[in-house]
Amino acid sequence: MSTLRTNSLEGVDAKNSITIVAGAGNVTTTNVQEGLAKMWHRSSDAASPTDSFNVSGGTDNGTGDFTYAFTNNMANANFGQAHIINDTNAGSINSSAQATSSTRIEIINGDGSAARDRINAGQLHGDLA
To answer: I need a labelling partner for 91 at 20 to 30 A (CA). Which of 1, 6, 56, 120 fits?
Structure first.
């Protein structure tokens, strides 16, 4: 087995994409750029990120209504995202708006009633601009 050690890799195509081929006979191919999270955060119940990647800040728009701005914009608003709340009571998070520069979420009570403030975390996948 060989080990490659380097500080950077650069793809040769227009998107600078890097593909890893694994398995005998090139059975499995993974595109590194497509598989990486482009943003993640863990935030307080007031939208203040306690730890994050590609998040320039959070805005508390009202009870349970938060917007997270990206440091680097997405190529389009068609990215996939997942968010969770840190709470012992059941509830849900709705994505109320996706833009190239931010995402907005609302935290809903377990019974579907009005939003509430809770510690939350999330990530998204898609193409950076």
So the answer is: 56
Task: List Cβ neighbours of 7 (8 Å cut-off, separation of 6 or more).
Answer: none
Q: pLDDT per position in the chain (129 positions), as tens?
A: 688 888 887 777 766 667 777 666 665 656 667 778 999 999 999 999 999 999 999 999 999 899 999 999 999 999 999 998 877 666 788 888 999 999 999 988 877 776 788 899 999 999 888
> What is the chain written as a DSSP string?
------S----SSTT---EEEESTTS-EEEEHHHHS-SEEEEE-TTS-EEEEESEEEEEEEETTEEEEEESS-BSSS--EEEEEE--SS-EEEEEEEE-SSEEEEEEEETTS-SB----EEEEEES-B-
Give the pTM: 0.79
